[in-house]
Every structure is written in structure tokens, then in C-alpha cells.
Amino acid sequence: MCLLTNAAVNLEFNPMAFVENLKHMGVGMLVIFAIIGIIILATKLVNYLFSE
């Protein structure tokens, strides 16, 4: 029994879609690096405040 939906049958290969999405992927990576930087700075601040 075939359970493929109509959307799975009509797949198209569009390489320009990848190029158009690079901007969004770049912004996402920038946000991830910014959050990692904030976590590192918060860890250093907590270490500085509670070190003896």
C-alpha cells in the first residue's frame, strides 16, 4: 500500500532556493554565536563574583 502524499510526489529541485535562504541561515548562525558569547560572559561574571 502506497502512503505517499501529494506533496511528496510533487517534489521539485530548486537550487536557487538554497541561495535565497543563505541570508536567513547566516542570521541564525550569528544569533547562535551571540547567545554562546552571552553565556560565556555570564559564566565569567559569576566566576568573578563568587571566587574567593
Average pLDDT, rounded to a whole number, is 87
Q: Structural class, judged by helices and strands? A: mainly alpha
Uncertain ranges: none
What is the CA-based Rg, rounded? 22 Å
Order of helices and strands: HH
Descriptive terms for the model:
52 residues; mainly alpha; rod-shaped
Structural summary, described in words:
- The mean pLDDT is about 85.
- This protein has helices at about 5-10, 15-50.
- It has two helices and no strands.
- Helices cover about 75% and strands about 0% of the residues.
- The protein is rod-shaped and about 65 Å long.
- The chain is mainly alpha-helical and about 50 residues long.
Task: Itemize the secondary structure elements and their pairings.
Elements: H1 6-9, H2 15-50
Brief summary:
This protein has helices at 6-9, 15-50. It is mainly α.
